[in-house]
Amino acid sequence: MKFSDFEVGQRYETKSVILTKDDIIRFAEMYDPQYMHLDEEKAKQGRFGSLIASGMQTLNVSFKLWIDVGVYGDHIIAGTGMNQLQFLKPVYPEDELHVIAEVIELRPRRVGNGTVTVLLSTYNQKGQNVFRAELSALVGN
């Protein structure tokens, strides 16, 4: 979509994805090697009683689900920021996640370009909001 086609209040819902135990461990081995993401036995003794996904994994999955909707298309120029990141609830193995993105701000920049800011809210299969962040991107016309 072109910058001029966006309106504050537009909402988009993504497909969903299930995070398996193997997905969680594989991501953690590469990017967040902490016990609560890797060691099932130790994680059972911890605060959450189970392995949980890394917050960074939840962020990445949320971002991919949003991008897969294809709203920006070829009009995206670059990401410009991510603010107000909140990891609200743990994500467990076999949780099914989907994202609702709402356009919350439009800022014209250079002729024909502008910054689109969306609020990404990620939910699990129980309808619990597990992650939220404001994502901004420079979009052309």
Keywords:
4 helices; 141 residues; five-stranded antiparallel β-sheet; alpha+beta; 5 strands
Structural description of this entry:
With 141 residues, this protein is α+β, with helices and mostly antiparallel strands. The protein contains 4 helices and 5 strands, in the order βααααββββ. The chain has helices spanning 21-31, 35-38, 40-45, 55-69, and strands spanning 11-19, 76-87, 95-108, 114-123, 129-139. The protein has a 5-stranded antiparallel beta sheet.
- Report the count of strand segments: 5
Order of helices and strands: EHHHHEEEE
Q: Mean pLDDT, as a whole number? A: 97
What share of the residues lie within helices? 25-40%
Measure the end-to-end span.
8 Å
Radius of gyration: 17 Å
Number of helices in the DSSP assignment: 4
- How would you characterize the largest beta sheet? 5 strands, antiparallel
Output the structural class: alpha+beta
Shape: elongated
What is the strand content? 35-45%
Please list the strands of the largest sheet in the order they lie side by side: 1-3-4-5-2
Low-confidence stretches: none
Topology diagram in text:
Layout: E1 11-19, H1 21-31, H2 35-38, H3 40-45, H4 55-69, E2 76-87, E3 95-108, E4 114-123, E5 129-139
Antiparallel strand pairs: 1-3, 2-5, 3-4, 4-5
Short description:
This protein is α+β, with helices and mostly antiparallel strands and 141 residues long.
